[in-house]
Design goal:
The complex is a heterodimer of chains A (172) and B (174). In chain A, the strands form 2 sheets. Chain A has a 5-stranded antiparallel β-sheet. A 3-stranded antiparallel β-sheet of chain A has the order 6-8-7, covered by helices on one side. Chain A is built from 4 helices and 8 strands. With 172 residues, chain A is an alpha+beta fold. In chain A, helix 1 crosses helix 2. In chain B, strand 4 and strand 5 form a beta hairpin. The mean pLDDT of chain B is 94. Chain B contains 5 helices and 8 strands, in the order ββααβββαβαββα. In chain B, 32% of the residues lie in helices and 22% in strands. Classes of the chains: A alpha+beta (172), B alpha+beta (174).
């Protein structure tokens, strides 16, 4: 599956999804943590989400990467650029599965994704759309220098809090 | 796998992509899609559904095909072909026709026969089913014209709100 480019950071590889990634992805989607990230999904719903995230690359030219730990080859979660129809704004998103939080991986991968957005895709602005109550994610956005901009209501899901990242000039 | 470009007398069939969006979106939001969509008819869900159709190709190596007239290849009329997301009891042959203006011309039958032949010839299918809502009378008529018959013993992905039509086998069509 080579629908997306592969990029690296010091400790991580950001690469296209592999079939084996579906199991840890589906386990996250079924867990309570998914409540604040798109909603809890059964396996069939998770598969369709997994497929749609791949299709996002074809329709938009960017999307989520699977994040792999260089040292172990383990799937850690996903980080990427996301702007499907109906979304508040083009965003940098992240999700770490159980066991891979607290290592700074989401931060490291999200910084790389932001650089890809600005340098490779030419974005002039990037947001992160975070479900209200996901304080861990908000702390990560703030660590990246993003600031709260506005609230974006969603049908049947918690409101998104839209954080805006420093622009490409500000980061130079 | 390289996506096929199938041809019939009047139609071309290809892997779906961003060119289909302007034709897909009005369809998926309309009542015509009531029997096939699994979520509320919003633009957000419609867009993701097409993304999922494309991702199905990546994950399975095959998927449903968009079809258009040879004389108007830039106007997508509908989709037909293999559909096998996680949780489906077996691989399905599906179809959608996106505008009522194109009904009654035999386009879907022509395209679905080509897609079925492709599944039997190149994907190694030995059998094929179509999962149809019992209220979807037009689709049931098409399944019958394609030679499919109800298989009441087969598992369904949607409980009772679904009739399984089983197509003639590969051998029977030869």
């Amino acid at each position: 599956m080579t629908y997306a480019p592969t990029v690296e950071t010091e400790r991580l590889i950001l690469r296209p999804n592999r079939e084996a990634d579906f199991e840890p992805f589906a386990a996250f989607c079924a867990s309570d943590r998914a409540r604040l990230r798109g909603g809890v999904k059964n396996r069939a719903e998770a598969w369709r989400q997994f497929a749609a995230e791949i299709g996002h690359w074809y329709l938009s030219g960017f999307g989520f990467w699977a994040v792999e730990e260089k040292a172990s080859g383990a799937y850690c979660g996903q980080v990427g650029l996301w702007y499907p129809e109906g979304w508040a704004q083009a965003e940098i998103g992240w999700m770490m599965v159980d066991g891979f939080e607290g290592k700074g991986y989401a931060f490291e991968a999200a910084i790389r994704a932001r650089r890809y957005a600005y340098e490779t895709l030419g974005w002039t602005v990037a947001a992160s759309c975070i479900s209200e109550g996901n304080d861990r994610s908000i702390r990560l956005a703030e660590r990246m220098g993003a600031t709260f901009d506005r609230r974006f209501p969603r049908d049947g899901l918690p409101d998104h809090l839209v954080y805006i990242h420093p622009g490409p000039e500000a980061l130079q | 796998m390289t996506a096929p470009m199938l041809e019939t007398a009047r139609l071309v069939l290809r892997k779906p992509d961003e060119r289909d969006l302007p034709f897909w979106m009005p369809f998926v939001m309309s009542d015509r899609a009531a029997f096939v969509r699994s979520q509320e008819p919003t633009e957000a869900n419609g867009w993701r559904a097409l993304a999922g159709i494309i991702g199905h190709w990546t994950l399975r190596g095959y998927g449903t095909l968009a079809f258009a007239l040879k004389s108007k290849p830039d106007v997508t009329l509908g989709m037909t072909g293999p559909w096998n997301p996680h949780g489906w009891p077996e691989a399905e042959l599906g179809w959608t026709l996106w505008s009522a203006d194109n009904e009654g011309k035999g386009y879907v039958r022509e395209a679905a026969e080509a897609a079925r032949a492709w599944a039997y010839r190149d994907l190694g299918w030995q059998t094929a089913v179509s999962y149809i809502d019992p209220r979807n009378t037009r689709s049931i008529r098409l399944a019958e014209r394609l030679g499919a018959v109800p298989d009441w013993d087969a598992a369904t992905p949607h409980g009772e709100q679904c009739v399984v039509f089983r197509h003639p086998s590969k051998e029977a069509l030869q």
